[in-house]
Amino acid sequence: MSKQEIKFIFLAFLVWRLGLFGILFLAIKFVHLQPNFLGGGLGNYLSSPFFWAWSNFDGQHYTSIAQNGYGFGEYTFFPLYPLLIKFIGGILGGSLYALNLAGNLISNLSFLVALFGFWKLLRIDFSGKIARLSMVLLLLFPTSFYFATVYTESLFFALLAWSFYFARKSKFVPAGVLGLFMSAARPVGIFIFPALIVEWYLQNSKRKVSLNKFPLTTLFAPLGLISYMYYLKNQINDAFAFFDQQVLIGEHRSSHVILIPQILYRYVFKIFPNLNYTYFPGIFFTVLEFGAGIIYLILTIVMLFTTRLSYAVFAFLAYLTPTFLGSFSSMPRYVLIIFPFYFLVAQHAGKSRMQLFAFCLFSFILLVISFSLFARGYWIS
Predict the structure, then answer these.
(1) Is 296 exposed, middle or buried (0-12, 13-18, 19+ CB in 10 A)?
(2) Which residues contact 325 (CB under 8 A, 6 or more apart)?
(3) pLDDT (tens digit, 9 = 90+) per residue, 228-280?
(4) For residue 330, what are the CA distances in angstroms to 103, 176, 215, 378?
(5) Longest dimension (CA), the chain
(6) Which of 111, 197, 221, 278 has the fewest CB atoms inside 10 Å of its own CB, making it the most exposed?
(7) Residue (of 189, 271, 195, 273) closest to 227 by Cα position
């Protein structure tokens, strides 16, 4: 990487972080506080919102798991991230403050690592211009603030970007090892496994390489999930508790598999007609998740025919799996890691300055609203 490229990535990250702090500053002044599910609890949040606002909602669960182990309904949260919080937080003193600080450090450093990996992955196929636009679109995405919170998004995206980068460079040993950590970080991490198989095939099919040359280290990828399932089986006699307990923490989620046509029916005939249209946060996150669900349904299908097949396989499976719970709940956050979206938009919207400006402005406005609400205790995704 050139010095200019390194400088661009650091500068983009810095501007993004300062921008989020600016949004948080305005949100504290102008957005009414919702006092539940705040990072560190209401007292800690009120005393230092600039420190605790980044760990609202799921951030509370991750720090709690790191401090006390798994509690009721928390087996949906995969172990890699809280284990890292526990390790680094222990070095920092082990208090709730130290654990929250550890979570913030892990997320922000992971995202910086992710940006470098994403850049190197982009530059395999695209010009510097498309790579820069893709990075800007990623940072302006309406829920990109989750990369800065005590959530798994940044850690997972770093593992994802670098695993694909190593695979594209035919280095399947590190790709498979990173895949192992991915499947220990989030359930959709398992889908790096079929993606790596497809990537190996794409690189070797024309050369007619024998199947006995397939890199067995790729088989490492599912071991994170398998290990967690083994742990769950021994702890609570339910290897699939990470799926079974989703219904406990997600609104409109089902304990059995639901298909997308049923989800659409639910939103059109059950959810939207019964919304409280005087309550803006409820309207906003419902429209946001429904929009993300519909748009990415179309996009992931398009990706199967327009992007590299290994990318498309991962994107399609990562999108489809959460919908089996019967809702688009959290979809605006889940789609953050569907990285082909950013270079697809960069390629097409980048052809028209007006179109690109309008897209970026709209995305930025949604980012401001989304993070302002999240930082003040309102559910977004």
Answers:
(1) buried
(2) 246, 247, 250, 253, 254, 258
(3) 999 999 999 999 888 877 765 555 555 567 788 999 999 999 999 999 999 99
(4) 20, 28, 35, 13
(5) 64
(6) 278
(7) 189
